[in-house]
Amino acid sequence: MTTTASSKTIIPVGFNPPKDSHLAVEVMSIAELRQKAPPEHFEKLQRADFYRLIGVLEGQTHPMVDFRTLVANAGDWLLVRPGQVFRYDFAQGWDGCLMVFRPDTLAGAGNSRAAQEMDFLRRVEDLQSLHALASAAHAWMVRAMRQMQEDAALAVEVAVRNELLRLQLATTLLRLSVWQSPTAAVGQAELTWQQGFRRFRALLESDFTRQHQVQHYAKALGMSDKTLSRACQAAAGASAKALIHQRLALEAKRLLAHTSAAMQVVAQDLGFDEATNFVKFFRKETGMTPLAFRKSV
User: Fold this and answer.
1) Where are the alpha helices (DSSP H) in the chain?
2) Which residues form the HTH araC/xylS-type domain (predicted)?
3) Which domains does the chain have, with CATH numbers?
């Protein structure tokens, strides 16, 4: 991992494994992580372009993820997604392990016919941020992380090591999904809604700062507005319009809380022509003005 200097409070962090490895997945202990940067680095807010999967082996920690301070105890696993604002907590002594991987690693794991049938990418997207695992499941996760660390150091071609790590990553995430939701197989109709929703969520993540209308997403996905909203309601319990607004409001909170950007700049970054329109939107979504929210955090 490498960090990029920034005048903003949030530090961008990019995925960059050791130059001699070129691996798509990196596994390390928390002790090894803390040797990669000075202590003050871990006290700052970070926004990465990769996933983090953190396992707590001993002790307790209170990381911050998108305005929520979580409590992670021994046996807990935390998944931090690309784009989320995150801060480590080393105020208390704790030990653990960390796996980082790029989003395109998931795309490779989800391209097989079998992966598509089980809707692998949707399962990953639906994973909770914090998992409290039973002791047997936690022990399996720890063994898997150690095995991946060993496999990353094998004296074989990079392509072989990457394939080993990719397959083990897919297995690890699928197990988390099963442990989270050990339910029966879904019907074809529900699967269709879920697939439509997954496509919408991916498009929303790329376009939400420019496109605020349901019509844009429906047209891009080859659906009617009504069909898209039905897919969102079935999969997420909210309309497409509500999900667009939720994503905008979350990004607005990130910018207001973790940068000193002027209101006009925040409005423009989120695709609002006028700051007054942004203020009206934010107040409707949160019950607070942007300035009041900034002062409260």
Assistant:
1) 30-34, 39-42, 103-109, 113-117, 120-125, 135-152, 158-180, 188-207, 214-221, 225-236, 240-258, 263-269, 275-286, 290-296
2) 198-296
3) 2-180 (2.60.120.280), 188-296 (1.10.10.60)
